[in-house]
Amino acid sequence: MRFAIFGSGGLGGYYGARLAKAGHEVAFVARGAQLEAMRRDGLKVLSALGDIHLDKPKASDDPRELGQAECVIVAVKSWQVGEAAQAMRPLLGSETVVLPFLNGVEAADQLGAVLGPERVLGGVSKVFSLIEAPGVIRHASAGAYVELGELDGARSARTRELCETFARAGIDATMSGDIRAALWKKLVTVSSWAGLGALARSPMGELRKYPETRAMIDRAMDEGIAVGAARGHAMSADLKGELWRYYDGLPEGATASMQRDIMAGRPSELDAWNGAIVRFGAEAGIETPVHRFTFHALLPMERRARR
């Protein structure tokens, strides 16, 4: 199968390398130091599941040089979706599927508005991988998991084929009958503590230890679940218990990607995480005081980073 990876950082680089090792034709859209290193030294993945070295990956910062793909995996940041949708057009043939693996719940619809909703699937990824050095991806989690599905909940041949392709490449894959609910669940998972961690300049180990911040995380979960339910997304009765078991199992020093970006003065996905819950809550007439405070308090730093 022919894949194009639009955004070849920790996530896109990891999945692209796994698919290439499994024998698929993979082209990488990359830029800057990452692209230079890939052209010079190839792409390396360091992983407990087995290291990979793609000696001469097909890579460019110009999609027109890469040809059409059967599937474009989108792995950019949420604020880059609009630009990416326009730039990826040369990668698209008449039957190309676009599969975003982004945080937040709006990327698939944003891509569909530009490229046509019939092209776009919904995707959730759970993997911890990052650029350790230009051209080198460090995969630090025990495995990698993807969930994908049609946005209308249908079970289609193309989602089944993609799930089987990921599985044969050593990536756990599930075909979802309600990918929008899965995306909302992930949004609640990350947004309930990432912004608070950025405000407190503290990792999860400290946030969960103190009753005051633990209570704020708990309230943020309530807000996200309530807004999701108002939008028609099925939330399990034990979702909060499931999330707390996950939070309590995280390493003491765990931080979220949005938190790390904000603390480093980089543009973040604040608008797609806390901001989305505030916006959708307002549309549904649901108060979201924890998310609203977090979002508004972090906005000055976000705007400064974008300047």
Write the element-wise H/E pattern from the N-terminal end onward: EHEHEEEEHEHEEEEHEHHHHHHHH
What's the number of extended β-strand segments?
12
How many H/I helical runs?
13
Separation, N- and C-terminal Cα atoms: 40 Å
> Can you tell me the overall shape?
globular
* Helical content band: 40-55%
Report on this model:
The chain is 46% helix and 20% strand. It is α/β, with parallel strands linked by helices. The strands form 3 sheets. Strands 5-2-1-6-7 form a 5-stranded parallel sheet. A 4-stranded mixed sheet has the order 4-3-10-9. Strands 8-11-12 form a 3-stranded mixed sheet, with helices on both faces.
Quick overview of this protein structure:
This protein is α/β, with parallel strands linked by helices and 307 residues long. It has helices at residues 10-21, 32-41, 81-87, 107-115, 157-168, 179-191, 194-200, 204-207, 211-230, 239-249, 257-263, 274-284, 289-306, and strands at 2-6, 25-29, 43-47, 52-54, 58-60, 69-74, 92-100, 121-126, 129-133, 136-139, 145-150, 172-175. The chain has two domains: 2-177, NAD(P)-binding Rossmann-like Domain (Rossmann fold, 3-Layer(aba) Sandwich), CATH 3.40.50.720; 183-306, N-(1-d-carboxylethyl)-l-norvaline Dehydrogenase, domain 2.
